[in-house]
Prior knowledge:
This protein is mainly α. The chain has helices spanning 9-28, 48-60, 64-84, 96-102. It has 4 helices and no strands.
Amino acid sequence: MISVRSLSPLGVIAAGLLLTAVAQTAYSEGRRFQFDGDNVPGWTLMSSAERAEQHQKLMSFRTMEQCRAYWEIQRSALEARARERGKTLRPARFDVCQQMKARGLLE
């Protein structure tokens, strides 16, 4: 881990500019939504690649119907995976599709 104290003043400025650029890029995309273990049941049952694929897929939808149809299939698959591993898939804390709609990501 790099300490700010170990950087030169120029290094601190460069790191700050880089972080600012990354943050601005993320917000300028407009269609941001955080998917994680708090809002996606079965998060721990998926690999990093599966999580990324799910995120990409969900963000590609334009309507509630598309989102709900996908989410129903995904939920069933994760429930089956949980059963195979002797686990129980927790209930969703909230409706991901509804949250996306509330943020203007779905029609």
